[in-house]
Write a structure and sequence with these properties.
Blueprint (H helix, E strand, L loop, with lengths): L4 E2 L2 E2 L75 E8 L2 E8 L4 H12 L6 E2 L2 E3 L3 E4 L41 E4 L12 E4 L3 H5 L7 E7 L1 H9 L12 E10 L2
Antiparallel strand pairs: 1-2, 3-4, 3-11, 4-10, 5-11, 6-7, 7-9, 8-9, 8-10
Length: 256
């Protein structure tokens, strides 16, 4: 979440398609750090990845994945996966792998969109640009800035679903945010979902459940320790102290 600091309140910003999105306010902290990154020869940075100069026609990629990386599209994706399908997404990071289970029936538009982008190699060679300890780990922007780039990657937005409003009063419900959930960042609500996502860190659900505005589309089933390692190297401003790269995201359909 590309954030804004206002007076004494630290806000988190979720940026999609170049728009500024205010999300939940994380717990205040006085931690200040500097940013360090691995060498470009070890892990590819977004600046070394070729980005589109024109939007591509939006068609479903092959189930085996596209051989060409595409990050900018003309419209939101059509239906590319079965309505009752279940997918596992493997996030290969510079700290280890994270596996997320994504049942399409629970949040079809979001899972369909994520599978679509992953098969186009959209997330490959990016990094987690917004990290706040005890709150969230955010990624999904090919420019690494949290703004979606000058062309507004991925070039579209769509409408997802959100947890029930009762999360504000009954946060222990299964449908409310939980540590390990993965949800979509947005600019003004679920109608502006795009490509950016965030993992909920332990403690982050406390704030998110007071403003359930973000579409949950999966849950970590392996590698939560990696998510927490990434989260530990964040800061109150959201600028990570160590840049962790998302080398690739691969998706596969699994038995429902």
């Amino acid at each position: 979440m590309a954030g804004v600091l206002a007076a004494v309140i630290v806000g988190i910003v979720l940026l999609v398609n170049g728009s500024t999105t205010k999300s939940a306010k994380p717990p205040a902290t006085t931690t200040t750090t500097t940013t360090t990154t691995p060498t470009a020869t070890t892990f590819p940075t977004p600046t070394t990845q070729p980005l589109a100069t024109a939007a591509a026609a939006t068609t479903c990629p092959p189930a085996t994945g596209s051989t060409k990386r595409i990050v900018w599209f003309t419209i939101a994706p059509p239906t590319c996966i079965p309505a009752t399908s279940v997918f596992d997404a493997t996030f290969k990071t510079s700290l280890g792998d994270i596996v997320v289970n994504m049942p399409a029936a629970a949040s079809f538009a979001a899972v369909n969109n994520f599978v679509f982008l992953a098969r186009y190699q959209y997330y490959n060679g990016t990094f987690f640009h917004r990290v706040i300890p005890g709150f969230v780990v955010q990624g999904g922007d090919p420019t690494g800035t949290g703004t979606g780039g000058p062309h507004g990657y991925p070039g579209y937005s769509f409408t997802g679903n959100t947890p029930p409003a009762s999360c504000k009063t009954k946060p222990s419900q299964a449908a409310c945010y939980q540590p390990g959930d993965i949800a979509l960042a947005n600019s003004t609500g679920p109608s502006t979902d795009g490509s950016q996502f965030f993992f909920v860190l332990p403690g982050g659900q406390t704030t998110l459940n007071t403003e359930p505005n973000y579409t949950i589309f999966g849950h970590v089933v392996s590698g939560m320790n990696v998510v927490e390692k990434i989260g530990a190297d964040g800061s109150s401003s959201g600028t990570p102290t160590v840049t962790v790269y998302l080398l690739s995201v691969t998706v596969k359909q699994v038995p429902a």
